[in-house]
User: Fold these one by one.
Assistant:
Number 1:
Amino acid sequence: MRPFHAGPSGLRILGLVLLVAASGCAYYNTFYLAKKYYRDGTRAQERSLTDEPTPEAATKYDLVIRQCTKLLTDYPKSKWVDDASYMMGAAFYGKRDYVAAMKRFEEFPTKFPNSPYVADARFTEGLSHYRRKEYVDADSIFRDVDTRFPKFPRRWELYYYAGEAQSQLKYYPAAEYWYGRALDAANARHERSDALRRLGDAYFRAARPDTAVVLYARCLKVEDRGKQRLDVALSRGDALRDMRHYQEALDFLQEWKIYAMTESREGELGLRVNECMALLGRSNEAIGGYRNLIEKFPRTAVAYEAQFRIGYLYESAFQDFDSAAREYDKLRSQPQSEFSSQALRRAQNLSTLRSYRTAMA
């Protein structure tokens, strides 16, 4: 005869039911909503044209924080506590409260050492330091994640932002290393184009315009976003200029006029085109081009730079110091800018030079 095994008592069954019900409430009443609000906040921010959180995104992230706080307070034994803690930190990061995000992520591995979110928490802690311009701290954390979590699934982001941190620190060989790894890890088209663009930027800033020109050309074959394509094209023109390939730079830049007009950045392109003309010795054409920019884009940064460059050409190319001083003086009535300050200094220098020549005559 088989031994009899008594089934669970009614109280045990009730306890199990309540436990399951509590777990369900923890998920559906709190964490489910938190995840939904987080997705909504992320989508709202992706539609933004700036890096600042939109009102809609900020509202959604606040709801995430509220729901996660409720779960952590009301259901501290829930299996979702590490998810909620990580998501709360991510919401703080999303709404640009980096100090609160870092606090949440710093304590995460101690509270949840076995959580699958440990690597993500550490990485986003590094991103928070990066956003606060604490680049040395960010670099240290990115290296730690790379060493401790070799199978970290967000490797492209890790390598890309490690490169960004090094670029901000002006350690360009290290930046090249990380951007190169990001390029190797890229799966999506824009991951590849972003890595190529920033790799080109790193070589350009490291005084290697020859390599930058090649990388920018590769990037233009991949990049399909209008703004980013024009950014790369302008940077390639700058690199050709620094190689002293002035005619090649001019021809290349002039091919991008229609794209610059489409992006409402014709002035940026025009400044570079006229600079190349001046470098080719076509100073009168350059001055005429700069005057056209001043007329077309009055009271803008483009106009102020164009005005300064007219004065500089009279000074440097023609040695016509009186005309140069008159052109520099036109910036006195304009709002304070980098170019008005430079024009004031150069006008003062020319005045001193004229006084010296008069005294020596």
Note: The first helix runs from residue 10 to 46.
Number 2:
Amino acid sequence: MTAATANLAPGLDLGPATRPQPAPTPNGHRPVWETVLADLQSFHAAAPAAALAALGDVPADLAADMAARDALGRARYGTPLQPFNGRDSFADCYQELLDAIVYARQALIDAGLPEDMHEVIEHEVYRTLLALAALVRAMLSGRARGEWPAADREAAATAAAALAAAVAGGAGLPQANSGRSA
């Protein structure tokens, strides 16, 4: 959150979508990007050959992109992303998911995609992001009620499943040309 956003309502808690957080504090824990890259390698090693063939260079490209994001974060914050860094990682996750949702929807409007590709992005990316955001928001709500993590697991899973079913079964989105009103 920028200083300008924080000044919109000083002292007012705007909720997990906009709550300011401190700068990350460096510590001795393993950087999270290292863990994620190891997870990616593990998933890749366990994937069936047909899936690997269909993915082509995507896993290598994804790993390179992750390493680039790690380098950018280290340059921007002066430290790698580490657990226990003084920030609320679920709030960070939720805020980034909200941004991803709006960027995915913008891509559907901006890209001028062929109809079949529009449907793939809408169903496999945009709607998945909506369901993930619902799950994380349900977890944040449970935690705020003091029901985190065990007591709210079922409610979070139920909320995510309900939204996933709603978005998966919903009508297609309009394929807007520019998103601008005439």
Note: The chain has two domains: 25-87, 88-169.
